[in-house]
Amino acid sequence: MGDVTAAGISFRLLDGPRAAASEDDLLALRAQECPDAGIEDARQLRVWRRQPGFALAEARHGGYLVGWAAGMPLRASTSWWKDVTSPLPGDLTAERPGRTFAFTTLIVRPAWRKQGIGAELHRRLLAGRPEERATITISPAATAAQRALRAWGWRKVARTRGAGPGASAGESVRDVLLLFLPR
């Protein structure tokens, strides 16, 4: 997974073991952007990066981390769909190996936003994924992120209650979005 540089920004796609080397930077940026982040986020990132198929895209300017995105395939036994607020068809929520990639995190430092970095992290994280589709949960109040995701082809399929993957502590309602991946 190679390095690519564009407009002074270096993008790298990392697997779990390679992402471990960036863990301090990743968690520091997460804590800066999500004030409720803490020890649980560190534990969660360590668990995620050990999952088969975990991927992390990072963007750096020089050695300075300006953004990152991460995710991993859902397992057949996932609890991803358990807290949806209205019934969904079983064919939508049934998981099997290789069906769904959970896009868990997308963070770009405020000073670096509106420069296409988030879009490029999104593109790199999902490019060439073998899964049929991707899913993400996002706060309904995150209007800029919601607009960006919809522009990138995501569509809302449900709402969930309870803090799911990528949620900050205390967040109780999130939208569940889906994106069908090119095959």
Brief characterization of the structure:
Helix content is 27%, strand content 31%. The protein contains six helices and eight strands, in the order E-E-H-H-H-E-E-H-E-H-E-H-E-E. The chain has an eight-stranded mixed sheet with strand order 1-2-3-4-5-6-8-7, with helices on both faces.
- Uncertain segments are none
Helix content: 25-40%
Report on the biggest sheet.
8 strands, mixed
How much of the sequence lies in strands comes to 25-35%
- CATH topology: the name is Aminopeptidase
| Number of helices in the DSSP assignment | 6
SSE topology string: EEHHHEEHEHEHEE
Shape: globular
End-to-end separation: 20 Å
Radius of gyration: 16 Å
Mean pLDDT across all residues, rounded? 87
Strand count: 8
What class do helices, strands and sheet pairing give? Answer: alpha+beta
CATH uppermost class: Alpha Beta
Q: Looking at this structure, what is the CATH superfamily?
A: Gcn5-related N-acetyltransferase (GNAT)
